[in-house]
User: Which sequence fits this backbone?
């Protein structure tokens, strides 16, 4: 029952993100979006269902006697369009059944390796061939021998950058923005702000925004601004990344694309917070999703199967789109270079044990479902941190109260990093990190996009006892708290300081102790009105025991604290504490401990 509740909550929240992220105040038109998507899906299914396929079989006539030809490649092309329908190579008298995607008139071409003793247009006869299982007959065709058969172009090289494209994402992203604007015009044509339809933008509004602005903080809701816009930015980033561009090039595309939407996508004034959320946080979010999608494809060994392709497309839709549309050009999988990875899934049931927040959140039980991945843990001897996000931490959790659901999300990754070591027992990586946080409990909601200095390391305290940890401190733009509503916005923006300390004490394959403290100070500097400041902190402590294989159980205490100070309002001090019982599915029975010491084996 707990699992069903959690899964339903995740489905409801994720569907809200997918359907609502392009749209402001989408809940007013919530029925329109699923209906349109359903119609599109039905059209695609119908097209697939009515497609007719067939097989072609036959034999080359006098294959071995035709002037020494011992092998032939038969290529089937649609007669009127020259589109490729299928190909087969044989050195036998019989050609195996050759699949084609549809039935119709085709031309059969035969080719061989270059041979100076042969004419470029020697004719090889091909016997009559017909589609398998069909009464239609394809008439006898002439087949010409190509002296220099056309060779397919090589695909994308992630190591050299060969075949990457600056043009394709430069066309895809504006196309996505135009499509998004067009959809919003139809679905939300009555949406107005300051007497203007929000999505009826044109060249005049674009030019006015470009020259005059003014840039300001908008009044959209927390969910839309702090999660919907970063996800929209991750789409921009994914289009660039999957076309072969590196992280920094993709960050540039994402930032410019966010600027394009802010100035040309809407008639409202361009938004400072959206430019940061889509243009910067979107790249942090998108890079994590791109890496996870690539890892899923890479783990398939050779050619990824259908389910891995589908899973990668769910994680990073632009990656799936480019792999499907451009075929072999972008089929090359981004190389992870074999990082040390630890991931887990947790299902929990908890109760509130400490509450000083008034009546906003009740005391009934809560169900939680979370996923965590640590990618590129330090200590692996042959792994380097030369690329942004060669180390990153990704956490996603959903908490379902009886009448309220909320999402916790965090991603942080190395931007410029260097590994180091101290003795034989300590390995680490330090440098500049980029991070994006989002947490949406009603009273304690907080989000921030920050750049931080810090380190991630592992220390072997004993032969089977390891301590892993991350410490970060940095600045950026954040939003949070609960203040009097302005439009749909009931939270405060301002320059933000962020600190994080995360520790994991690992006892072989028996147990681990997790502790994490994270705090945001949202100042009045460069902030929205009313002027004030917020300090929102989160503390988690848990104990997990492995009971069998990859299965573990544990307990956790989580505390949230908020202290707000607004000269024009009263000060607020609030606290919420929750105790939970957890089931954990582990990705690694040694809880992610990395071994590099001589004479020791995990």
Assistant:
């Amino acid at each position: 029952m707990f699992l069903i509740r959690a899964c339903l909550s995740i489905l409801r929240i994720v569907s809200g993100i997918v359907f609502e992220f392009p749209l402001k105040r989408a809940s007013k038109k919530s029925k329109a979006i699923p209906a349109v998507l359903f119609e599109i899906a039905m059209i695609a299914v119908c097209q697939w269902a009515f497609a007719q396929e067939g097989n072609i079989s036959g034999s080359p006539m006098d294959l071995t006697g035709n002037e020494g030809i011992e092998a032939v490649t038969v290529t089937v092309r649609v007669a009127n369009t020259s589109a490729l329908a299928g190909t087969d190579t044989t050195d036998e008298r019989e050609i195996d059944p050759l699949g084609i995607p549809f039935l119709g008139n085709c031309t059969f071409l035969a080719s061989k390796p270059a041979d100076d003793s042969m004419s470029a247009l020697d004719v090889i006869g091909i016997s009559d061939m017909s589609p398998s299982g069909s009464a239609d007959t394809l008439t006898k065709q002439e087949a010409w021998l190509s002296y220099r058969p056309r060779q397919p172009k090589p695909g994308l090289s992630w190591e050299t950058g060969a075949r990457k494209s600056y043009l394709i994402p430069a066309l895809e992203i504006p196309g996505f923005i135009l499509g998004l604007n067009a959809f919003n015009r139809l679905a939300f044509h009555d949406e107005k702000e300051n007497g203007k339809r929000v999505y009826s933008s044109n060249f005049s509004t674009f030019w006015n925004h470009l020259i005059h602005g003014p840039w300001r903080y908008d009044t959209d809701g927390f969910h839309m601004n702090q999660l919907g816009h970063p996800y929209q930015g991750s789409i921009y980033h994914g289009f660039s990344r999957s076309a072969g561009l590196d992280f920094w090039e993709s960050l540039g595309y994402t930032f410019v694309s966010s600027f394009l939407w802010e100035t040309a996508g809407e008639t409202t004034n361009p938004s400072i917070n959206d430019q940061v959320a889509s243009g910067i946080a979107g790249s942090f979010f998108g890079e994590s999703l791109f890496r996870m999608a690539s890892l899923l494809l890479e783990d398939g060994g050779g050619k990824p199967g259908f389910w891995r392709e589908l899973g990668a497309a769910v994680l990073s839709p632009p990656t799936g789109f480019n792999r499907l549309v451009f075929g072999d050009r972008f089929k090359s999988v981004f190389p992870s270079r074999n990082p040390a990875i630890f991931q887990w899934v947790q299902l929990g049931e908890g109760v509130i044990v400490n509450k000083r927040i008034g009546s906003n959140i009740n005391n009934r039980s809560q169900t939680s479902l979370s996923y965590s991945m640590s990618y590129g843990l330090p200590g692996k001897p042959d792994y380097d941190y030369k690329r942004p996000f060669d180390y990153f931490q990704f956490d996603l959790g959903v908490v379902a109260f009886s009448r309220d659901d909320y999402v916790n999300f965090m991603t942080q990754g190395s931007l410029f990093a260097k590994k180091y070591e101290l003795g034989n027992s300590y390995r680490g990586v330090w440098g500049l990190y980029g991070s994006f946080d989002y947490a949406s409990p009603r009273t304690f909601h907080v989000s921030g996009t920050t750049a931080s200095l810090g380190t991630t390391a592992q220390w072997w305290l004993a032969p089977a006892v390891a301590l892993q940890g991350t410490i970060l401190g940095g600045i950026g733009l954040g939003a949070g708290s609960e203040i009097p509503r302005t439009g749909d916005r009931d939270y405060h923006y301002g320059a933000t300081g962020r600190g994080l300390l995360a520790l994991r004490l690992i006892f072989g394959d028996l147990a681990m102790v997790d502790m994490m403290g994270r705090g945001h100070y949202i100042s009045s500097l460069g902030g929205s009105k009313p002027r004030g400041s917020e300090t929102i902190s989160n503390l988690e402590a848990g104990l997990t025991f492995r009971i069998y294989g990859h299965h573990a159980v544990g307990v956790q205490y989580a505390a949230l604290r908020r202290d707000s100070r607004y000269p024009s309002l009263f000060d607020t001090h609030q606290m919420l504490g929750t105790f939970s019982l957890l089931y954990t599915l582990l990705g690694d029975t040694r809880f992610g401990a990395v071994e590099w010491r001589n004479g020791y084996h995990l």
Notes: The first strand starts at residue 54 and ends at 58. The chain has a mean pLDDT of 80. Residues 272-298 form the longest helix (27 residues).
